[in-house]
């Protein structure tokens, strides 16, 4: 490999480095990190789904609420929380031993 070959390798390497630094890296850093339609984590953590009932549920009402609110979490949905504990009190559900009221 002669002097010309070394020069070609150095020039090509320099061009690759410049393209990487000035085009590829900024493109990687400026890409949007949000998924379209995604809900931000802070909103999920601060969200409460449905209001608690004004009067205690009957067992039948609680059963229906548990079905309707299947996608809600007991920790964040007061409505499902009330329905769940109505079911527990009636003996129709058993909470995990780690769950506290």
Describe it for me?
The protein is mostly helical. It has a domain at 48-89. Helices cover 55% and strands 0% of the residues. It contains 4 helices and no strands. The protein has helices spanning 3-30, 41-46, 59-68, 78-89. Helix 3 (59-68) crosses helix 4 (78-89). The protein is rod-shaped and about 90 Å long. The model has no long low-confidence stretch (mean pLDDT 85).
Q: Could you tell me the radius of gyration in angstroms?
A: 29 Å
Low-confidence stretches: none
Count of strand segments? 0
Gap from first CA to last CA: 79 Å
Beta-strand content = under 5%
The helix-strand sequence is: HHHH
Mean pLDDT: 85
Tell the overall outline: rod-shaped
Q: Which bin fits the share of residues in helices?
A: 55-70%
Helix tally? 4
Largest sheet: none
Please identify the structural class as seen in this structure: mainly alpha
Keywords:
101 residues, 4 helices, rod-shaped, mainly alpha
Short structural summary:
The chain has 101 residues and is mostly helical. The protein has 4 helices and no strands. It is rod-shaped.
